[in-house]
Amino acid sequence: MKAILIKDGTGPADNLYLGEEATPEPGKGQVQVKAFGINRMDLLQREGKYPLPPQASRTILGVEFSGVVTKLGEGAKQWKEGDEVFGLAYGGAYAEYIVSPEIMLLPKPKEFSWVEAAGVPEVWMTATQALMLEAPLKKGQNVLIHAGASGVGIAAIQIALHVLGANKVFTTCGSDEKVEFLNKLGNAPDRLHVFNYKTQDFEQELKKHADGVDLIIDFIGKQYWNQNIGSLRLDGTLLYLAFMSGAAFPEKASIAPILGKRLTIKGSTLRSRKEDYQRNLLSTFEEKVLPGILEGKLHVKIHQVYPWTEVIAAHKDMEGNKNSGKLVLEIPE
Description:
Helices cover 28% and strands 26% of the residues.
């Protein structure tokens, strides 16, 4: 089969190329991939900076896809050949075919294009995981979501506003254009407040609207530590999903407010989770979030679609933080 591979195993975006690898034989089910999404972890894996779970492909990137079931392995009974599906993967989605555990697939709704379906799994599952499983947001609480224009941020903002009933949602992004985009997306001017972190101090700004937040979803790490701690209310939670500005604590970090405000500091990942956890997450998404998407209350935002031959350009666009929403690659018929 054809697959996107990395020259020399790791390296910059220019090392990506369309090559060939053995077509995987199904343990349970084989899916012919129609489209796949790009995530920041793909960039880290390409550079050799992402610790892979044991189930992941060592040569092929990609953790989300949409496609058609083409072959069933021994004992497979949940799907049949020809079923249209989308789902999560431990790796290997940048390819014509992928082998997937049955329980990590969902039926593709007829309302979804292949591109939309491929842009859902990782970001919407991560947002669901954060807000419903790992640090459940209660109705009427306030939440701060960093990297608001990222795929996960876009999903989390909408889930907080329109599924979980947050009182106020605060979010950060890096340009005035993204501020405008997120304000239109949220469609809740009295409850959503968007800050440009390059020109505004988000801690000071959010305190013009509330005395603090109950939950912070953070991908940034070191750069935001002090402002995050200062923004949290009593008994608040800071949930880390990444640390793009570094994992070390800043020099002036203090444990005192953690004790004084009885804060919870927590970290979470998705890719390393066992199949049963991911199945539970998929079920939670299917029951509580997916209906809102299908009804048009929540919106899957695709920033740009590329043919998979333009994977280098797609990776460079993500590296440059050019996207507001998902970057998805299509595999031609």
